[in-house]
């Protein structure tokens, strides 16, 4: 068994930097409900798409401009600029409840973890993946936003206990939360494992969990009343504030990063991120990193046959059988994949990362979940 624990400890040498605006924004709108059309002139902060999920946050234009293209996958905005901005919303003057949740959702906040009442609220303060330091950076430089976000989250959930999970040896605190130290090794930074470390229970129904990136966004909305139009990304060792929809090509050009034929460019992290198919692809709200992987560094993923080595099973922190789930997904036997624990998988990516046959295990798992979700929605319709 290849037993490796991947460190989340990183050294911060700079503050958050602003990424220059591109000439065009390329929003990924696949599976979103588009709320604009080609030829429309947008104001900065204007809504462009809504999330179909009940708790999903809307998407907004990071800058004023004209919509020059819309298709199934993407929406393109020419950044002509302009000083007009959508009027702010005073969310702090609103009473807690369904109306406030709808307003937050309309401002780009995912509210699935903010509804109802929680006995325990856990704030995941660990870096999400090796090489990504946005959580660590926000705990150092985003204290005002985090405090405002936590105050609003506590007002909505009324928890009896609020916990900030931080790496062992770190004394960081947020007003209103007690700090609990958690081992800073991947995959222990995943929400499900952080909750288990804090509460001693697996998937407790009375517990809500938020990462510090989402808490920071909630705090910015609370302080400014403006929608979320940026994401924070670790790129080449530094953290940048990047407008959502910024094409990868623009980032590479601005930072002087070189790529070569055969290289893979991953948005997200090295375990859970997704390789892009085009340099024109825009960054998403939940992309917290950009990585370039040389074609010589890691063997290419391929649709090879499983060799039954069992490595993915030994690595799996959810205690499911990724090799069997992926085989069912590969041959579109999705209900059978559920019986092998598909819905217990929290997509850490360790199975695919450690697969000796280089099978796309995580992609198969996500494919199966997406197909079952689409089938369920179709049945309801």
From TrEMBL:
One of its GO terms (molecular function) is metal ion binding. The keyword Iron-sulfur applies. This is Electron transport complex protein RnfC, putative. Residues 297-327 form the 4Fe-4S ferredoxin-type domain. One of its GO terms (cellular component) is membrane. It comes from Pseudodesulfovibrio mercurii. The lineage of its organism: Bacteria, Pseudomonadati, Thermodesulfobacteriota, Desulfovibrionia, Desulfovibrionales. PROSITE patterns: 4FE4S_FER_1, 4FE4S_FER_2. SUPFAM superfamilies: alpha-helical ferredoxin, Nqo1 FMN-binding domain-like. Keywords: Iron, Iron-sulfur, Metal-binding.
């Amino acid at each position: 068994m290849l037993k490796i624990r991947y460190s989340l400890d990183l050294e911060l040498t700079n503050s958050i930097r602003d990424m220059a605006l591109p000439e065009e924004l390329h929003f990924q709108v696949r599976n979103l409900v588009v709320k604009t059309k080609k030829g429309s002139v947008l104001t900065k902060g204007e809504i462009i798409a809504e999330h179909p999920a009940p708790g999903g946050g809307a998407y907004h234009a990071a800058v004023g401009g004209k919509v020059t293209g819309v298709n199934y996958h993407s929406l393109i905005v020419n950044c002509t600029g302009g000083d007009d901005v959508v009027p702010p919303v005073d969310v702090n003057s609103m009473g807690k409840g369904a109306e406030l949740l709808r307003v937050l959702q309309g401002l780009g906040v995912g509210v699935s973890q903010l509804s109802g009442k929680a006995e325990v609220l856990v704030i995941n303060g660990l870096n999400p993946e090796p090489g990504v330091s946005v959580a660590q950076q926000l705990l150092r430089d985003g204290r005002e936003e985090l405090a405002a976000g936590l105050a609003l989250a506590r007002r909505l959930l009324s928890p009896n206990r609020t916990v900030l999970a931080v790496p062992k040896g770190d004394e960081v605190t947020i007003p209103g939360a007690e700090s609990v130290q958690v081992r800073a090794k991947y995959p222990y930074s995943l929400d499900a494992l952080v909750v288990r470390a804090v509460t001693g229970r697996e998937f407790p129904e009375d517990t809500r969990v938020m990462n510090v990136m989402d808490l920071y966004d909630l705090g910015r909305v609370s302080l400014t009343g403006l929608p979320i139009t940026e994401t924070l990304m670790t790129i080449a060792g530094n953290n940048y504030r990047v407008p959502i929809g910024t094409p990868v090509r623009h980032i590479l050009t601005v930072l002087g990063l070189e790529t070569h034929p055969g290289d893979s460019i991953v948005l997200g992290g090295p375990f859970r991120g997704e390789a892009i198919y085009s340099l024109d692809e825009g960054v998403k709200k939940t992309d917290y990193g950009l990585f370039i992987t040389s074609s010589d560094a890691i063997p290419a993923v391929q649709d090879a046959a499983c060799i039954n080595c069992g490595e993915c099973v030994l690595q799996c922190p959810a205690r499911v059988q990724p090799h069997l789930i992926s085989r069912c997904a590969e041959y579109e036997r999705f209900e059978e994949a559920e019986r092998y624990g598909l819905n217990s998988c929290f997509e850490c990516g360790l199975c695919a990362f450690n697969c000796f046959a280089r099978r796309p295990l995580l992609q198969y798992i996500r494919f199966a979940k997406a197909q079952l979700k689409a089938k369920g929605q179709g049945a309801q319709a």
